[in-house]
Amino acid sequence: MDRVLPNTLVPFVVCLCLVWTVRGQDIHFSQFYNAPQVMNPALTGIFYGDVRIMGHYKKQWANVPADFLTFSGNYDRKIYPKNAEGNDFFGFGVNFNYDNAGFSKLSLAQLQFGGSYSKELATNTFLTGGIQIGLANRSYKQDDLTSDSQWDPAAGQFDPSLPLGEDFDNTSIFFADFSLGANLRLQKDDRRTKLDFGVGLYHLNKPRQEFFDASDIKLDNRFSVHALGAIKLGGALDLILNGTAQFQGKFREYVPSAALRIYLNQNRGKELAFQVGGNWRLNNITDAIAPAVELHWRTLAVGVSYDINVSDFEIATDNRGGPEIWLSYRIVNVKPLGMFKTCPIF
Predict the structure, then answer these.
(1) CA of 254: how far to CAs of 118, 123, 225, 285, in Å?
(2) How far apart are CA 40 and CA 130, in angstroms?
(3) Exposure of 254 by Cβ count < 10 A (0-12 exposed, 13-18 middle, 19+ buried)?
(4) CA Rg value for the chain
(5) Residue 315 predicted with pLDDT over 70
(6) Nearest 5 degrees, angle CA 167-CA 109-CA 172?
(7) Cβ neighbours of residue 15 under 8 Å, at least 6 residues apart?
(8) HEC profile for the chain?
(9) Residue 7 — φ and ψ, nearest 5°?
(10) Is the distance from CB of 293 to CB of 276 less than 8 angstroms?
(11) How far is Cα 323 from Cα 346, in angstroms, rounded to an integer?
C-alpha cells in the first residue's frame, strides 16, 4: 500500500524545501565538465575553436511528486586583439540558467554575461581571469501548496477549497549577481593532452533572497575548484580525468569523474570519437553514481548520463535520480596564415 504524507505535515515539508533550496546549493550538473560557465567564469572562451554553443538539460527524481528540472544554455566566443603580442585573447559569453523545483514551483531564472582574458605565460601555457555579471529572478506559486488551515474539523477531513491562511509578502524577487574566477591551462601540441585547473567564487555580493520583507536571508558564496584533464595514451585512446569540489554555506559537493575516449577517425576535420565513463557524486555521504556516454563528431558533441541515486533518499526515488543531456556545437574559422592569429587553445 502506498504511504501518504499526512496533510498536516505538508506545510512543514514545503517550508523545509523552500528554506533548503534558497539557502542551499546553486544548480549543478553531473556532467560538470560540460557546463564550464556554471563552474568557473574563467572557463569562458577556453575551448578549441572560435564560437561555442551549448545546451544542458537535467530532470531529477521523476518518481517523487516534487521533482526538479534544470536547463542551461550557453554561448561563448574568442576575441583576438589585433595589436596584442603573443597569443593572448579575450573571451565573451552569455549564460542562461533555469531551475524549477517542488510543489511550490520554486524557480530560478538567470541571465549572465561573462568576460575573460587569457595571457600566454609560456608556450602552450595560459592563465585566464574571468568575471560574470548577471540578473536573476526567483519565484514560486501558491496554487499547489496546502496548509493546516485547510483542515475542516467539522467534516473531519482536508478541504482544498478552504483558503490557505498564509500571508506572503512577495512571490517573486529580482537580484543582481557577481562572480569571479581564474584558470590555468597546460597543453601539448597534439591537442589531446591538456589540463585545466581553476577556482571560481560566485555571489560575491551575497544577494538577498527573502520572500518576506522583515527577513534578511542572503545567498551564500559558492567556492568551486576544478581539475579537467585529458591524457593521450597512444593511438586512438585517451584517458579523461575530471574532478570538482564545491562549497556553499554548510553544503559540500565532491564529484570525481573518469572516462575513456576512443577515436574511430582521427583525420583533421573528420574526427569521430566515442567516450564512456562515469561520475561519482559525494557530499557527507555517497549521493549518486552517474554512468555517462558521449559522441564527438567533427565540431558537434552530445553527452548523456543518468543519476543512480544511492543515498537514503533512494527509498523515495527507487534509485532513479534522472537523466541529463548535454549538446555542444563549435565553430572553427579557417584563417589565412600570416594574416590572422590561429587559435592558441586546443
Answers:
(1) 27, 32, 10, 10
(2) 8
(3) middle
(4) 23
(5) no
(6) 15
(7) none
(8) CCCCCCHHHHHHHHHHHHHHHHHCCCCCCCCHHHCHHHHCHHHCCCCCCCEEEEEEEEEECCCCCCCEEEEEEEEEEEECCCCCCCCCEEEEEEEEEEEEECCCCEEEEEEEEEEEEEEEEECCEEEEEEEEEEEEEEECCCCCCCCHHHEECCCCEECCCCCCCCCCCCCEEEEEEEEEEEEEEEECCCCCCEEEEEEEEECCCCCECCCCCCCCCECCCEEEEEEEEEEEEECCEEEEEEEEEEEECCEEEEEEEEEEEEEEECCCCCCEEEEEEEEEEECCCEEEEEEEEEEEECCEEEEEEEEEECCCCHHHHCCEEEEEEEEEEEECCCCCCCCCCCCCCC
(9) -60, -30
(10) yes
(11) 29
What is the predicted pLDDT for the residue at 268?
84
- The C-alpha cell at 53 is 554553443
Evaluate the CA torsion angle 163, 24, 220, 229 in order and state its sign: negative
CATH number of 7-331: 2.40.160.40
Q: Of 119, 60, 132, 49, which Cα lies nearest the Cα of 90?
A: 119
- Average pLDDT of span 149-175: 76
Ramachandran angles phi, psi of 305, nearest 5°: -135, 165
Using CB atoms within 10 A of its CB, is residue 274 exposed (0-12), middle (13-18) or buried (19+)? middle
Q: Are 294 and 31 in contact (CB under 8 A)?
A: no
Among 71, 129, 77, 65, which residue's Cα sits nearest to residue 103? 65
Each residue's pLDDT tens digit, 34-63: 999 999 999 999 999 999 999 999 987 666
Residue spans per domain, the chain: 7-331
Mean pLDDT within 141-156: 73
Task: Map grid coordinates 552569455 to a residue.
Answer: 94
